[in-house]
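Title: Comparing notes on inverse folding

I've been comparing how different people in this forum approach sequence design from structure. To keep things fair, I'm posting one structure and asking everyone to reply with a full sequence. Here's the target:
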């Protein structure tokens, strides 16, 4: 056993390794991608809280924002109260990245609870749970969702923590664990309502209550603990819904009707849309697929993870997600948890069998196939950078050679561990380093890649804002302005309401989809004004996108 292997058996080594992986996958170059739609909604609402708006009845561009619970927005707003108002998306995404890291550690605790009584724990106590955390932290879907400053990562993270404490309470009867699970249940509700309760809590508890449950439940305090869990969860999670219901009930009812209707009308996909979920484990996709082949995987993985429990949890979650018409890729995150446990069990089995020279022919074929796929990726990386002409990664630039060098080293390690000596543990190390290297080395090119088809010289909202930021003007729009444009404007841009919006003594900025604005369009009760077009900008990256026009309205004194 090497010194590195011995270090990874210590608590410091395991915690440090998981933190290092999370730092590479969730935090490095966090500000690279442009702000997405859901992020823009969250960031605009947080900006208005910090600017003096209500934290309990949030607004988005001046209108009530009740469609989503406020906890993720509170996190962004609280961060800005510490750092000051900022447009730095790398800073604004820190709460989401932190929640992704917390989810990994919660999952580590949950995996430890589910595996502590299995035979594999006698070999290396805690290794299965630690390896599951490593795999989850480097899985593709969690990386993409964990770097996105919106609601899903919050609700899923709190719910995973809730499951961990709940299982601990069910096993030991500790009322503190039940109470902690209730608090995290409340945080889940405050993050995205009942979504995680349906997609995570419900399938987990249904399968946990069957004969495939990993361990019997401690019946002594089950009733009291369950009541404590439900009461605390209801009180914490129900406070905000009760508050907005008591203050803006008609608006709450209207939003509820829209949200319920959207489940069957927006983003509708086929029933089988989520069947490709193993692919979203990224570098672990092949092992994820193999772990679902029950005749092969069950007898190998069952000594390290509760295989039939995890499989039942996975399949029930898949069914529950699939019957809902509205589907998005990020909604698959609850599927990643049982899937990661299943593939981790298979990895642990391979570790043991290859170490003891007891691997079968099928084991050898699969591990070599895994190594072959990793080798193809390592060889293809430099080639793809040249083929797609990745900005900043041409043969004349240092980043290209740095990535090529790292890919070359990983390729040689893959050949050694996958073909020469056949060591699954070595291929695990290569997989984790490969994922971290892609994030650390290639992510800086992402903004240029996003703008690869952008037309040079066209003005965007950011350019207009730069010209007018030093002017104390209020901004309004005669058209419905997309929320991403509101975010780019750096301020509230409410819809102009003729005859009700008051024209102050100072000039105002008006945005319109038409190249002209008449005084009549602004209302009949206005004092004499002058209207002059001062600028225009495009919503997208080229002139094929919508063009909006900027006007300055001045009162005649």
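Reply #1:
Here's my take.
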């Amino acid at each position: 056993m090497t010194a590195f292997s011995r270090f990874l058996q210590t608590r410091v080594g395991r915690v440090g390794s998981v933190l290092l992986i999370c730092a590479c996958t969730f935090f490095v170059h966090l500000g690279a991608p442009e702000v997405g739609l859901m992020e823009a909604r969250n960031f605009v609402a947080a900006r208005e809280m910090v600017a003096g708006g209500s934290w309990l009845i949030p607004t988005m561009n001046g209108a009530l924002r009740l469609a989503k619970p406020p906890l993720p927005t509170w996190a962004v707003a609280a961060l800005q109260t510490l750092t000051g108002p900022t447009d730095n998306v790398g800073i604004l995404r820190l709460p989401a990245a932190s929640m992704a890291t917390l989810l990994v550690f919660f999952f580590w605790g949950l995996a430890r609870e589910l595996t502590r009584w299995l035979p594999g724990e006698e070999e290396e106590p805690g290794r299965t749970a630690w390896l599951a955390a490593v795999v989850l932290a480097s899985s593709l879907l969690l990386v993409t969702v964990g770097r996105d400053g919106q609601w899903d990562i919050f609700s899923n993270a709190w719910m995973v923590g809730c499951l961990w404490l709940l299982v601990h309470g069910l096993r030991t009867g500790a009322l503190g664990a039940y109470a902690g699970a209730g608090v995290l249940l409340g945080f889940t509700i405050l993050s995205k309502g009942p979504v995680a309760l349906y997609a995570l809590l419900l399938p987990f508890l249904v399968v946990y209550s069957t004969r495939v449950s990993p361990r019997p439940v401690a019946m002594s305090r089950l009733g009291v603990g369950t009541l404590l869990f439900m009461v605390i969860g209801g009180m914490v999670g129900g406070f905000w819904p009760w508050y907005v219901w008591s203050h803006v009930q008609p608006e709450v009812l209207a939003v509820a009707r829209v949200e319920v209707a959207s489940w069957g009308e927006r983003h509708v996909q086929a029933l089988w849309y989520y069947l490709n979920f193993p692919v979203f484990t990224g570098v672990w996709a092949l092992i994820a697929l193999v772990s679902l082949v029950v005749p092969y995987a069950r007898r190998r993985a069952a000594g390290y993870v509760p295989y039939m429990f995890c499989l039942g949890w996975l399949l029930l979650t898949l069914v529950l997600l699939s019957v809902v018409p509205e589907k998005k890729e990020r909604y698959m995150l609850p599927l990643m948890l049982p899937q990661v446990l299943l593939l981790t069990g298979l990895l642990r089995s391979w570790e043991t069998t290859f170490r003891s020279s007891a691997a079968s022919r099928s084991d050898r074929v699969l591990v070599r196939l895994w190594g072959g796929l990793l080798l193809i990726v390592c060889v293809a990386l430099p080639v793809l950078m040249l083929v797609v002409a990745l900005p900043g990664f041409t043969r004349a630039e240092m980043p290209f050679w740095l990535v090529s060098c790292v890919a070359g080293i990983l390729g040689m390690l893959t050949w050694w561990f996958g073909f020469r000596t056949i060591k699954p543990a070595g291929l695990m190390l290569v997989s984790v380093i490969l994922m971290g290297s892609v994030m650390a080395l290639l992510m800086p090119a992402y903004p240029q890649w996003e703008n690869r088809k952008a037309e040079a010289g066209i003005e965007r909202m950011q350019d207009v804002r730069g010209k007018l930021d030093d002017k104390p003007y209020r901004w309004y729009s005669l058209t419905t302005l997309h929320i991403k444009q509101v975010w780019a404007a750096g301020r509230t841009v409410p819809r102009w309401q003729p005859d009700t919006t008051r024209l102050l003594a100072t000039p105002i900025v008006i945005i319109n989809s038409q190249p002209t604005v008449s005084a009549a369009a602004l209302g009949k009760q206005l004092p004499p004004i002058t209207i002059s077009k001062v600028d225009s900008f495009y919503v997208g990256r080229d002139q094929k996108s919508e063009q909006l026009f900027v006007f300055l309205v001045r009162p005649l004194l």
